Amino acid sequence: QVQLVESGGGLVQAGGSLRLSCAASGLTFSSYAMGWFRQAPGKEREFVSRISRSGSRTYHADSVKGRFTISKDNAKNTVYLQMNSLKPEDTAVYYCAADSGTSYTRDYGKYDYWGQGTQVTVSS
Questions:
Q1: Element at 18 (helix H, strand E)
Q2: Digit-coded pLDDT (tens) for 82-99
Q3: Calpha distance 20→6 (Å, rounded)
Q4: Would you give the distance in Å from CA 55 to the centre of its chain?
Q5: Count of C-beta atoms within a 10 Å radius of residue 79
């Protein structure tokens, strides 16, 4: 049974930082690219970041480029999202997802497994 468990969310002031973690089990982690998505109230789920199977390639949405960094530790079966210079518009539930495909995609429908999400709230 595949499980993705996010942690690290919380309440932070604008300009602050948070580090999200997503621990995976029940799958061969090194065989999956991993992504982070977010969903704010009343909005659609949107792509944030993606990292390749090996961790050698990363992709970020324009809205977070230069502020967020995704990383992957295949030995620990964990993917991270370091979020710096947070803004109120970053407030959302953040989800990690696993993709068995090799092609870069921002389409959440292409991802195979999902975590339950962790709330990030940025106050102004």
A1: strand 18-25
A2: 999 999 999 999 999 999
A3: 7
A4: 14
A5: 31
